[in-house]
Amino acid sequence: MAKIIGITGGIASGKSTVTEFLRQQGYQVIDADQVVHELQEPGGRLYQALLSAFGSAILQEDGRLDRPKLGAMLFGNPELLAQSSQIQNEIIREELARRRDLLAETEAVFFIDVPLLFELQYEDWFDQIWLVDVAEETQLSRFMARNALNLEEAEKRIAAQLSLQEKRKRADVLIENNGSVEETLAQVDQLLKTERR
Question: Exposed/middle/buried for 16, CB within 10 Å: 0-12, 13-18, 19+?
Answer without folding.
Answer: middle
